[in-house]
Amino acid sequence: MKHQKYTALFLAGAASVVISSEIYAAPINDNDYQPESEQFVTSEVISSSPLAHTPRVTHSAGAVETVPTITSETELVDYIINKMENLEAVFEVRYVGNTSDLIANKKLLQLIKEAQNENDYLLGIGSAVGYNASYTSNEANLKFTTSYFITQAQQKFVDAEVARINAQILRPNMTDLEKVIAINEYIVKNTTYSYSSSTTPHAAYALFKEGKGVCQAYAMAAYHMFKAAGLETHYVTGYAGEDHAWNLVKVNGQWYHIDPTWNDPTFSTPIPGLENFISYQYFLLSDDTLLAERTMDSRPNLPRATAKNFEVFRSIESIPFKFNGIQYMLLPEYKNNQFFFVDYTNNYVINSLNLENEQLIIKQVANVRAMDILATDHAIYFVDIDNRLGLSKVDLQSKATTRLYSGGSVTSIKLENGVVKAYNNQNVVYTENVTAIEADSEIKKIANLVNTIVLPSKQFKKQADELSNLIDIASVDLQNYLSADVLNQIKYIQQQYEKMNNLFIDPKLSWAPLKKITEPLKSWTVTLSQEVANTPGNQSKITVVDMFGDEIDVDITIRKEKIMIKPNQNYVDGVPYTLVIDGGLQSNTGEKLPNRTHLTFMFGE
Fold first, then answer.
1. Does residue 409 share a domain with residue 329?
2. Which residues pair with 527 in a beta bridge?
3. pLDDT band at residue 42, thresholds of 50, 70 and 90?
4. C-alpha dihedral, 149 to 150 to 151 to 153, nearest 10°
5. Highest mean pLDDT among 123-127, 181-185, 526-530
6. Which residues share a beta bridge with 96?
7. Can you tell me whether residue 505 is helix, strand or coil?
8. Which domain-ending residue is among 432, 457, 485?
9. With DSSP H G I counted as helix, E B as strand and the rest as coil, what are the percentages for the chain, rounded to 5?
10. CA dist 330 to 154, 318, 348, 363, Å?
11. Could you point out which of 177, 209, 527, 542 has its C-alpha 20 to 30 Å from the C-alpha of 283?
């Protein structure tokens, strides 16, 4: 029996398909097929290599499972990809259908390759799948063996670490931008670019387990953390002087490039403080900006990054800088949704970038000249060039500058347990306790916000989310600083917020879509198909509830088949209300309304 045998290699994550070797026997034709007998035909390997070669993890066979039968090529490829996404070791499948193209002409090889090329996860883990096929003209038995650069146990560890870290660095109701800033900062500040990990440096496992890895590990760590944070993202490969990997991430509906590896540059000479070094030169860039200096591997379904809303981040300076023989690290400080940084190209002024402004622009904080800086809620502490490299601070509200220490050069500033400490090398030369100052500022913000929250109101959710964020980031125990009245108000707001989130109004039971009304005291008349008794029991089944599910004060009148509902207080603008008629409403003939029904409405233009 004539047959064909070949081996093929697909490098997922590289720019193109590479056929490493093909060995052909005599060509086969239709007469070679014997439908009644299986013939062992081929052994094929399809692999996804990383950006550099390291030993793979080879999985051993697990428990025996029932071999499924699949009858379409699409279902077959979906089945294979699903198994690979779950890091399955060995699996089998029976395919029923025309096999001449699928096996003999390598179509299955091409289909798997195409599916891998559109799968971020499989590209990022260096997935490889090999299979043996025995087939006739109309069916095939396929046995697949896989290998990856991560094991199932390691992937579980990664998933657990991502959940733990995200819970630690992300707050509820963070914006997309805030999430990306926090994740990028965590990866950069907790990872060293290195090939010397005990497991492959191309996998996110090495990064989370050992704090080491190369670009593939950085990009896959970001991929997992972005996805877990609810952000859309892609793993991207290309060439930037060498093979390279980074990410696309969607922020506020627009796609951007982010390269956590290049935001964590390496230095040839060890410098104290490099563990805190972070760059924003490759943070949320457009295609035009990033691809002017590198190429990106083509994948047909990757989105375009056309927006340039965050290119201003490239103005945030990060650099080791030697001044008067003293080595400083000019690094940005991120505090209360603002970046503060020294502009060493412009007379060492302190600049800020306020992310709460609709238009992101760089502004000067104060007319001072600085080296090292430290941001707190109320002030910027800085090494003051014009104070003989002593310590000064700028009040963020008044913009007033105060000299704090002039007795010699300050080499670094740190915040330790609520105390600002200025160092001359290893010696502490100045301290200032900021806990009370910070606490006072935090408490005032929380108390002021609590006093502005109105229940119900259309601003309630936004204000309650802001209150939750302030409480989460508070540096002190609120019980010790807030009055009992404010604490009780916070508790009530939190209870109402939970009720609002748990309130479920089933749209299937509504007798009409949402109604917009313009009368603040609009009455309602509901006409039923039968007369209803005007009894307290029936009246109790008719209510109007607000956004929290709390009943509002209304008068109910029942006249035969009509129900009249009149509110005794104005509806609040922009707040949804629901008129509810519960099941069990009884007609004069004793019949009962079988199911609850309702109408949701909202007052306002």
1. yes
2. 562
3. very low
4. 170
5. 181-185
6. 139
7. coil
8. 432
9. 25, 30, 40
10. 37, 5, 10, 17
11. 209
Can you give the residue range of the structural domain that contains 472? 437-502
H or E element, residue 8: strand 7-9
* Beta pairing partners, 233: 249
How far is 300 from 285, CA to CA, in rounded Å? 20
Q: Determine the residue type at 508.
A: K
My answer on whether 103 and 126 are in the same domain is yes
The domain tally of the chain equals 5
Six-digit token pair at 230? 């609810």
- DSSP per-residue codes, 216-283: HHHHHHHHHHHHHTT--EEEEEEESSSEEEEEEEEETTEEEEE-TTTTS---SS--TTGGG----TTE
DSSP for 63-116 reads S--PPPEE-SHHHHHHHHHHHHHTT-SEEEEEEES--IIIIIT-HHHHHHHHHH
In this prediction, residue 439 has a pLDDT band, given cuts at 50, 70 and 90, of low
Instruction: Report the alpha-carbon distance of residue 492 to residue 499 in Å, rounded.
Output: 11
206-238 tens-digit pLDDT: 999 999 999 999 999 999 999 999 999 999 999
Q: Cβ atoms within 10 A of the Cβ of 24, count?
A: 8
In the numeric block, the tokens 């707190």 are attached to 376
Residues 276 and 183 in one domain: yes
Antiparallel, parallel or unpaired: β 326-330 and 295-296: unpaired
Residue with the larger pLDDT of the pair 209 and 438: 209
> Are the CB atoms for 230 and 116 separated by under 8 Å?
no
- 281 plus 363 within the same structural domain: no
Could you tell me if 374 and 480 lie in one domain? Answer: no
Q: Assign residue 549 a region: left if phi > 0, alpha if psi is -120 to 50, beta otherwise?
A: left
Same domain, 334 and 401: yes
Angle at 176 between CA 305 and CA 81, to 5 degrees: 65
* The token pair that represents 398 in the structure block: 């008044």
Give the mean pLDDT of 313-329. 91
In the structure, how many helices (H) and strands (E) does the chain have?
Answer: 12, 35
Integer Cα distance of 65 and 55 in angstroms: 29
The string of pLDDT tens digits covering residues 168-206 is 999 888 999 999 999 999 999 999 999 999 999 999 999
Residue 2 included in any domain: no
What is the DSSP track for 293-311?
S-EE---TTPPP----TTG
Tell whether 180 and 252 lie within a shared domain: yes
Cα radius of gyration rounded to whole Å, the chain:
33
Last residue of a domain, one of 149, 182, 212: 149
Q: Calculate ∠ Cα 470-475-476, nearest 5°.
A: 105
